[in-house]
Write a structure and sequence with these properties.
Number of domains: 2
CATH class of the largest domain: Mainly Alpha
CATH architecture of the largest domain: Orthogonal Bundle
Low-confidence stretches: 21-39
Strand content: 15-25%
CATH topology of the largest domain: Putative xylanase fold
Structural class: alpha+beta
Radius of gyration: 20 Å
Mean pLDDT: 86
Number of strands: 10
Strand order of the largest sheet: 3-10-6-7-8-9
CATH superfamily of the largest domain: Putative xylanase like domain
Number of helices: 9
Helix content: 25-40%
Distance between the termini: 44 Å
Length: about 270
Amino acid sequence: MMGSTKLLMKFIKENHLLFNIILLTFIIFCAPLPKEVNSNEKLNSRFFNINEIESLIKLYNFAPYHEKYNNYSKTLVGTPYVNNVLIGSKKIDEVFIIDLNRLDCFTYVEYVHALANSNNYLEFKNKVREYRYYKGEVNFYNRNHFFIDWINFLGLSQVEGADLKERKILNKKSETEKYLEGIPLKEKYINYFSVNKAKKIIFNLRNSKNHYIVGIVSDRIGLDVSHVGFLLWNKEGKAIFRHASSKSNYMKVVEEDFLEYIKNKPGIIIFETK
């Protein structure tokens, strides 16, 4: 019996990745299915159904926080990018959607952050609702449409030292148009890093184990950011941008050289995920 146990432990040690795959498969097919799904919710179940999301949470539940974050964000690499994945407008009733099979840049970050801060599917679903909607009330007018509003509900701290400040009139497309009909204009001041200052900050943060949520500042007065994703570092210490890309040659969640990505951008906003 002792000999069998030693052989099993040796197999697990030498085949760690294979063992995790076997364990995940076992959890997916054996874990009980959460039952709470309301009529105003939509879940895409082509690949990630409720049972599989529950299993994914349990698989990494006891890992250190930064490892959970990395595992969840990496799991979704390769997932297709789809624009306007959320349903709702001035004319269309809002639908609370959880869809890990089709992502835009915001929902990718939102789902990963919710996964890393949940112990089961029900908590995950409630976290997504809290992040996405003011007071968790599902309707188009309560949705946090802009990065500055949305990021506040994630409970994160902005990395200090920004060297630029800019006034924005959020939702202003032109003197006569809005980006989102029915949503009022909102004046905001945003503090952010120029690309040159960002390079220094990223160098100073390189030994951190944490992910950082980064907003790419927009050059339009009515938008605070044009894109959002994760900043992290690989084993060689290279800064990586993991994000849901809308570039025609990608159209999926990818990893790119972060400094190369931001070199022609107006600047960035950085929030720490801890």
